[in-house]
Predict the 3D structure of the following.
Amino acid sequence: MKAGDLLKPLATFKFWKELFIMTFGMFIAAAAVYYFLMPSNLIVGSITGLSMVLSEVFTMAGIPIKVSVMVTVINAILLLLAWLLIGAEFGAKTVYTALILGPLLELWEKILPYEKLLEPGQTSVMADPWFDLLCFVLILSASQTILFNINASTGGLDILAKIVNKYLHFDIGTSVSVAGALICCTAFAINPFRMVVIGLIGTWINGLALDYFTASLNRRKRVCIISSQYERIRKYIIEELQRGCSLYEVTGGYNGHHNVEIQALLTTDEFSSLMNFLKVNDIHGFITAGNVSEIYGDWNAKKRKKKKVK
């Protein structure tokens, strides 16, 4: 392969767009870690949590190491293990996001040290470990959702989970939970039992919030319409919404009448446009709609091109 072929992606808008999204997503994640995790000393199931434990252990041993430095070192080791144990095809996006977390923590420290946000006597930004946990989980989950949507991740725990998944044959979700719980348990070295339990609960809530945000972001409407004017509806879906649809011959169980049912997968905005079209044109029919969060196949998630003017 020529060197020019390797550099071709750098000249595309998609590359720079996704680079910006990854940097922005990790910038948010670093803020969640720096302002809500580190001051409260919460150890949630993540590489950052493990870094906090190891940093404290080394400090107590007389070898002070900053959390941001420990994050970078551990992520670098995990990326090397991923290369050797998972394979060279491991995504460059994860390499990038994993290695910039440490420097971004340093950046937030220079922009606004969390010490300036602490009131006298406070040991954390929100002054309560549960509120710190909630803020951290919600912000981190939003960041993870942004990254997963472009096939990237925050690295760290995701890498460890993939290794566990490959060699212990656990489901990837179970791998994340197991790895996260093990990391939380390392907090017994520096935290009381109560704080460890809070961290374990936070790991569980993080998974729930991530599932919710991901499902919301990917949600589509599965629309089923039975109408005598199905041809007008079909043309609108294909020509105006530029979506595909399926036609099924159906027979009414009550009256035995033969008709056609149209099924289509639409975004929320497209569904609203379709319903408005039916209302404006006084098209009657039997309509059902449900939410779909997972789609496999030829669904085009990209923004539709505008129709060409004839």
